[in-house]
Amino acid sequence: MDDQDAFLPYSSPTSTRPLLGLTVLVVEDSRFACEALRLLCLRSGARIRRADCLRSARRHLQVYRPSVVMIDLGLPDGSGAELIDELARTTPRVGVILGMSGDDNTERMAMAAGADGFLAKPVHSVASFQEMILSHLPADRRPSGPRMVNDEVIQPDPIAYRDDMAHVADLLGEGTDERMLDYVAQFVAGVARSADDMALAMVADALSDVRSEGLASNTVVAQLAGLVQDRLSEKIAI
């Protein structure tokens, strides 16, 4: 529970809203992924706060104490594993610390840093989201008695995906800094897979490959920039 919420009446979890009374801090740079998590929290009864980088998250944690912190491993100003390690060592400890990534290979990194669990993105199942958090909560914070399993699959607003594409376009427009290209490759790959945009994900993976092999990346960067502009030019039905 947030320090700010300490003066509010405590809400007990119910069978249909098992996360009622919890506040979830989501440290996530993708608006599309964060929109999915917002909907999952809404369906589950939890409040949500968002930080889009390590600096913002640390500033937030100086003021509030959330019940659950969900941390993306690939952030613009560093690895989410750094924050996981900090929180795992802090006393009193946050109730639940979860790592997140679209790259399953980072699960070991998150767990080694001290995470209680790992969520592989995309996360669209309400039941899976709830179970991941509930399984790490103390018994007195879980709903008592039988719990209704919510088999709903949420659909994030496509405008949030467009926002992510605009962010990538801005980054690419600023130049081709080496560190920035590595960040763009992993960011786009994760967001594209969350949106089931496999054509874009494949080009992002190709950029990661040429970067890791030390090859020239201008052609792949141009291809990626073209696909991003195509997404931005597409009309979204509202």
From TrEMBL:
Gene3D superfamilies per record: 3.40.50.2300
Domain Response regulatory: start-end pairs: 23-136
Pfam entry (one): Response_reg
InterPro entries: Bact_response_regulator, CheY-like_superfamily, Sig_transdc_resp-reg_receiver
Keywords: Phosphoprotein
4-aspartylphosphate PTM sites in chain numbering: D72
Matches recorded under SUPFAM superfamilies: CheY-like (SSF52172)
Gene Ontology biological process terms, A to Z: phosphorelay signal transduction system
Name under which the protein is recorded: Response regulator
